[in-house]
Amino acid sequence: RQVESLAFRHGSGRLHSGFQSISRIDDERGTRRVYEDLAAAGVDVHAYGADTALPSLPDGISTHTDPGEELRRSWFVVSTDCPPDRKAALLAHEVGPNEWTGFWSFEEPVVDHVDRYLQRTYW
Fold first, then answer.
1. Which residue, among 94, 104, 108, has the nearest Cα to 21 in the 3D structure?
2. DSSP 8-state symbol, 121
3. Closest CA to 22 of 30, 14, 31
4. Using CA atoms, how far apart are residues 59 and 77, in angstroms rounded to an integer?
5. Which H/E stretch holds residue 15?
6. How far is CA 59 from the centre of its chain?
7. Among 82, 74, 72, 66, residue whose Cα is nearest residue 115
């Protein structure tokens, strides 16, 4: 929850969260509440998944879906459009059953690149 926490403490900016399936927002205890609080605090929240049917979500959470493999096999949380000390990205890709590879970054150019990629590809 570190990336979400950075976005919440700033109270604005944009947060991209890839859930594989947006319905997973209800899988882990407290996740829905975290995202409700982020949206209520003024963070521009975007949820991504390979869903064909979406769960009911709180106001202020935009959804982006694509049935392709990229969202189905990826997990990410990206805080951007905020001061450089609040920017962060966690990206992971599933390479096997319960096996992931990925990275963290707090570097502004890396975070901005991921932000632009998500907007170009899924908005």
1. 94
2. H
3. 31
4. 19
5. strand 14-18
6. 16
7. 82
- pTM equals 0.92
- What are 92's two structure tokens? 């992971």
Write out the two tokens for 99. Answer: 């096996």
Distances (CA, A) of 26 to 1, 19, 107: 15, 10, 30
How far apart (Å, rounded) are the C-alpha atoms in residues 55 and 1?
Answer: 22
For 92-122, write each residue's pLDDT tens digit.
999 999 899 999 999 999 999 999 999 999 9
The pair of three-digit structure tokens given for residue 80, joined into one six-digit string: 């951007």
Q: Cβ of 28: how many Cβ atoms within 10 Å?
A: 9
The candidate with the shortest Cα–Cα distance to 18, out of 102, 85, 109, 83, is 102
Query: Would you say 79 and 108 are in contact if contact means Cβ atoms under 8 Å apart?
Result: no
